[in-house]
Design the sequence.
């Protein structure tokens, strides 16, 4: 500390002697206040610039951090989209497989049921092959009718004739060929869309690689900015030292003021230069040579003073050179920072362009997904229609085989029947007429019985509806909800019995009738017994409509009386 204080005192003495006017040509060695003030202003400007540059560096770092967050968010979005695409593809594949399996099982069950029905029909036809020609022709017509109904149910308008069935089958084959062509075209289009999707995924991978490259460049720029900020702060110790020297100078001036016994109030109101001049005047007065001394003593002192001032001037020049070098370095750092800022702006613009391209590619991807989904639905529909047509064709081929077999059976049966008819016509012409008459009479009787039974059923349904209405009315009168009862008949009977008991118990005390909405239980029982008796009688009549009861003597008399 003593050495530093000595250096400071010597520096103050140099400043004092440099500012003092010398009479013998020493003005060229003066170090003026203006030069010091300019140096101070330059140093202050450099410090302000360095602070501005550090603030700009901090802003750039904040922008880079925001860009890093945006890039990370975009990466997350890209990964989510890729995962969504994979999941959607897997889900579509699973759903398509499940739907195909379920449809195949349904078709298999349907085909098995149809095959069983055809086998049953064939068994019935083989069993009834010994019957006469009318039954075989009826079976053949029913088979053609079932085939025509099957084609009509599947959407093909068909007439129950062999020519109509063959025409519909030919049309089905034509439509099947056209649908197969459409399916092939859709499959080719699906392959093209898959190729486009693979190209789009490749583009996404390239974008990811470019984003990673931009992140690396961003980290490099951040490192450069951190290094440049450290370099810009290198000049701060010099400023701190200068401020400390200034404070020490002021303190030294106050100490000299105390030693020289100067008025403190007047000294505090002066500036630094005035204080320095006042102190130098007092020192010069104290150190002024007496007239007794000779000029020989003054010359070496002046020479020493000149040498010291020259040395101080050289040191000041060196300090100025070092300060100029530092200022040049700071300007270079400022240019590098500006260059880094321009590069960061360019990177930001490039990143925004990449984001716009990514959004555009994302929109194209959504369009491609929609087209792929539409194509998948079309292919699925076409495949379902194709499978349906294939099943129909298989069914048609089976039916054609069965038709051929039935035609052969029909021809054989026709030949046999022809022989039997010839023999029968030759031997039993009269018996055949009797049999035909008996069959006709039986058919007429059966039709009459069927008509009567139908009428009886209609009447029974009406009676049942009336009985249900009557039950609901009785339940409503008794305060019950018939629809919500588990056993409504029992509940209504118990209610009527309870009402009869109450009526029997209160008949002596009550003289008035029920209200307009109530009905006496005796009338209700009478009407219900009448309805039940009528229904029982009608059921007996309907049951007596069978052939066995019609032959009974009791039924004959009742039937005559009814007619």
Sequence:
């Amino acid at each position: 500390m003593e050495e530093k204080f000595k250096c400071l005192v010597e520096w103050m003495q140099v400043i004092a002697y440099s500012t003092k006017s010398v009479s013998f040509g020493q003005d060229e060695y003066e170090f003026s206040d203006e030069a010091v003030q300019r140096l101070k202003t330059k140093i202050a400007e450099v410090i302000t610039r360095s602070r501005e540059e550090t603030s700009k560096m901090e802003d750039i770092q904040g922008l880079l951090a925001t860009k890093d967050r945006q890039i990370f968010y975009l990466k997350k979005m890209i990964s989510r989209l890729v995962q969504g695409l994979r999941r959607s593809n897997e889900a579509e594949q699973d759903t398509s497989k499940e739907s195909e399996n379920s449809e195949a099982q349904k078709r298999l069950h349907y085909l098995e049921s149809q095959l069983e029905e055809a086998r049953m029909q064939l068994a019935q036809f083989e069993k009834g092959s010994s019957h006469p020609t009318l039954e075989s022709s009826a079976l053949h017509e029913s088979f053609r009718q079932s085939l025509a109904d099957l084609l009509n149910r599947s959407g093909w308008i068909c007439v129950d004739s062999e020519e109509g069935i063959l025409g519909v089958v030919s049309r089905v084959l034509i439509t099947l060929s056209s649908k197969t062509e459409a399916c092939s075209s859709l499959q080719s289009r699906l392959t093209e869309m898959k190729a486009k999707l693979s190209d789009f995924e490749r583009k996404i991978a390239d974008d990811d690689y470019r984003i990673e490259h931009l992140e690396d460049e961003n980290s490099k720029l951040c490192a450069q900015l951190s290094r440049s900020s450290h370099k810009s702060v290198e000049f701060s110790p010099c400023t701190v030292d200068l401020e400390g020297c200034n404070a020490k100078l002021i303190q030294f001036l106050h100490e000299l003021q105390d030693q020289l016994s100067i008025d403190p109030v007047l000294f505090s109101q002066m500036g630094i230069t005035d204080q320095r001049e006042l102190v130098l005047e007092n020192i010069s007065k104290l150190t002024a040579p007496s007239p007794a001394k000779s000029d020989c003593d003054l010359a070496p002192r002046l020479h020493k003073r000149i040498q010291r001032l020259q040395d101080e001037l050289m040191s000041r020049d060196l300090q100025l050179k070092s300060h100029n070098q530092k200022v040049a370095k700071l300007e270079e750092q400022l240019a590098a920072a500006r260059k880094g800022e321009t590069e960061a702006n360019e990177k930001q613009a490039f990143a925004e362009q990449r984001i716009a391209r990514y959004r555009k590619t994302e929109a194209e991807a959504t369009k491609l997904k929609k087209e792929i989904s539409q194509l998948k639905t079309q292919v699925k529909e076409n495949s379902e229609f194709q499978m349906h047509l294939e099943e129909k064709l298989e069914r048609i081929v089976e039916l054609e085989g069965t038709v051929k077999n039935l035609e052969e059976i029909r021809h054989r049966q026709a030949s046999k029947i022809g022989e039997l008819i010839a023999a029968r016509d030759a031997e039993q012409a009269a018996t055949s007429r009797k049999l035909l008459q008996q069959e006709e009479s039986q058919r007429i009787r059966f039709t009459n019985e069927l008509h009567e039974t139908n009428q009886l059923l209609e009447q029974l349904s009406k009676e049942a509806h009336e009985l249900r209405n009557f039950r609901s009315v009785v339940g409503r009168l008794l305060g019950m909800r018939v629809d919500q009862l588990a056993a409504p008949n029992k509940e209504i009977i118990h209610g009527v019995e309870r009402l009869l008991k109450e009526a029997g118990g209160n008949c002596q005390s009550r003289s008035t009738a029920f209200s307009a909405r109530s009905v006496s239980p005796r009338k209700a029982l009478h009407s219900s017994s009448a309805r039940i008796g009528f229904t029982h009688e009608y059921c007996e009549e309907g049951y007596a409509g069978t052939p066995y009861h019609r032959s009974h003597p009791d039924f004959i008399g009742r039937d005559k009386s009814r007619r």
